[in-house]
Predict the structure of FAD-dependent thymidylate synthase.
Amino acid sequence: MSARNQSTTEIAEEMEQRLRMNPQGCRRIGNFGFIELEDSWGDEATILNTARISTTNNRLHSVADFSDRDRRLLYQLLRDQHGTPFETVYFRFRFIAPIFVLRQWVKHRMSSWNEFSMRYRKPISEAYVPDLAARSVDGFAVLDGTAMAEYSALMEQLFQWYEAQYDKACARIELARAEGHLPPKQGGRDPYRGRARELLRNVLPVATYSDVYWTVNFRSLMNFFRLRRKPDAQYEIREYADAAYALFAARYPLLSETMESVLREQEQHLASEAP
Ligand SMILES: Cc1cc2nc3c(=O)[nH]c(=O)nc-3n(C[C@H](O)[C@H](O)[C@H](O)COP(=O)(O)OP(=O)(O)OC[C@H]3O[C@@H](n4cnc5c(N)ncnc54)[C@H](O)[C@@H]3O)c2cc1C
């Protein structure tokens, strides 16, 4: 592999730093992937306090105050799809994933996205490389070692082409400046280099990694888990969804157990209705 560009080195260092700072809240995935549950707002008490707006002003302070009655109410609300109290708890995930995974993930519209832009920085010069488990179906490797060597070489060629073309474009811009054909560089983003980055990113494959902040409420997160942890979801997004779930469940054991019960019952109900 060629040398990493600056964006990639910085992001790799940041992943290492986050793993040191928040080891319980982070996971590495695949050859360059990462996910962290960076922050969350609200908890099971927030949900019940919201749901009881009409019936009581006695607030629960945390899940430690919960009685069996409170636990039962949490379950009933979720089972009976009382949606809005579950929209009052928020999660902020940071993840670094291939663009093809992002395209599936962004379909979960009930959430907020902020993604690394290749207009302002060079791309992450790492592409997803499926390991043996990812490229096997029932133990059969659908892409063999030769195909994988070519796959990696092709990705590498694209990143190298990007770097070489960007260097050439920058050299032409600087020469034109030196000769007085272009205005001197002002503060902020150089529009000429910026346009070169905008165009050159077009050649990058969907296996290229990108970097996202994802902010989502519990109702929508549950929908994401339901759809993307199922066996028919694609292997790669499933890996991220499973990691997101493990991070969430470690921080919210009661909510995750309640969710599991409700999802299991919904699955059983659907299975019993199937022709
Ligand atoms: C196995 C699998 C295969 C898939 N294949 C494809 C595919 O081939 N092509 C493709 O484009 N997508 C595909 N999808 C994506 C899928 O169609 C959904 O877009 C995605 O799962 C997000 O689900 P959602 O709409 O429930 O989530 P969100 O967008 O987060 O919405 C959450 C909920 O809000 C409500 N909602 C949101 N927006 C609206 C609206 N406009 N009107 C009414 N209610 C709304 C709905 O109740 C919805 O369930 C696939 C998903 C899975 C899991």
Residues 107-110, 220, 223, 227-228, 232-233 surround flavin-adenine dinucleotide (CB under 6 Å). The mean pLDDT is 95. The radius of gyration is 23 Å.
